[in-house]
Amino acid sequence: MPRYCLAGASLLAAALALCTPLQAAEAGWTPLFNGRDLSGWTTWISMQPTSLNMKIPTSSRGLNQDPRKVFSVVDSMLRVSGEEWGAVSTVGEYEHFHLKLEFKWGSRKWAPRLDLPRDSGLLYYAVGLEGAESGHWMRSHEAQIQEGDTGDYHSLDGVTVDARVGDANEGDWKFYRYEPSLPLRTGLKARILKKGNFEKPTGEWNTMEVIADGKTLVHIVNGHEVLRVENPRQNLGGRMLPHTRGKFSLQSEGAEVFYRNIQVRPLAAAKR
């Protein structure tokens, strides 16, 4: 082959390499994070609370205003510093899906959560106004990412699910504990504790998965199903209607956390 053809081939290979995501998805999956920048994502920063009981903030930094680099890319990982609260969210919306990502905790922690477990969260079916929940996050269902509690379910801005649960509480805080052998309870909009603890030690990589087919929501931690709920709904104009489409968001909530290999694949809609 002539020398100029070899040179052209080398340039073409280099160009293709620049276009290839650093974190390529598995076969059948689509990467949501390219490992280089936050293309395809937006940021929302509210503020750094002065206490855990602080009411909804009256002001915020807002959309794509992140002077402290709460959300950034470090060594091909999506870093969430946790310093100020908010979320980084996909531009696109997703309906029937299987989402998978890896996360690990960093060393930084911030007031007012210095003495509490490291906390973040994966929000899905995120819709509506930024900051609708407590001034920080969108209306959504949350797969909790928190030391010791990864896989719990949280309702944000009043979304509801049906689940097989028992009662649980922590002081005056009332919530539920998932137990698949119990009868189904409907219209729950609170925290639901997952079943089993399959997290790895702080600093090691964990895999979180969420499966949502329009009827059932499943949380999986390191290959173990820890929670299953049904019939996601939201209040629209005074009526509870199916809530089965929205964005993905990753929370900033007082702790440094790193994400990688964020990928999604479509699912068929469940039959009702």
Number of helices: 1
Helix content: under 10%
Which stretches are low in confidence, meaning pLDDT under 50 for 5 or more residues running? 1-21
Order of helices and strands: HEEEEEEEEEEEEEEEEEEEE
Taken as a percent bin, the fraction of beta residues is: over 45%
User: How many strands?
Assistant: 20
- Tell me the span between the first and last alpha carbons: 61 Å
Report the radius of gyration as a whole number of Å: 20 Å
The assigned structural class equals mainly beta
Largest sheet: 13 strands, mixed
- Average the pLDDT over all residues and give the rounded result: 90
Shape: globular
Model description:
By secondary structure, the chain is mainly β. The protein has one helix and 20 strands. The chain has one helix at residues 3-19; strands spanning 30-31, 41-45, 62-63, 71-74, 77-80, 86-90, 97-109, 119-127, 139-146, 153-156, 160-170, 173-178, 184-188, 192-193, 206-212, 216-221, 224-236, 239-242, 247-252, 255-266. Strand 15 and strand 16 form a beta hairpin. The radius of gyration is 20 Å and the shape is globular.
